[in-house]
Design brief:
It is a single chain. The protein is mostly helical and 48 residues long. It has a domain of 25 residues. Helices cover 73% and strands 0% of the residues. It is built from 2 helices and no strands.
Length: 48
């Protein structure tokens, strides 16, 4: 049982350390503008 707790603690530390070290760029302003433009096109496909 102690081994399982230690392994879970190690996995938790490794998972949290990998998230902190990486700097992930999710979206920039240009990408969001393009995404909004495409969404507006798809949204209005049903209009004549």
């Amino acid at each position: 049982m102690k081994i399982a707790i230690v392994l879970l603690a190690i996995v938790g530390l490794v998972a949290s350390a990998s998230i902190i070290d990486k700097k992930v760029k999710i979206a920039d302003k240009d990408f969001l503008a393009k995404q909004k433009f495409l969404l507006e096109i798809v949204y209005r496909v049903e209009d004549p």
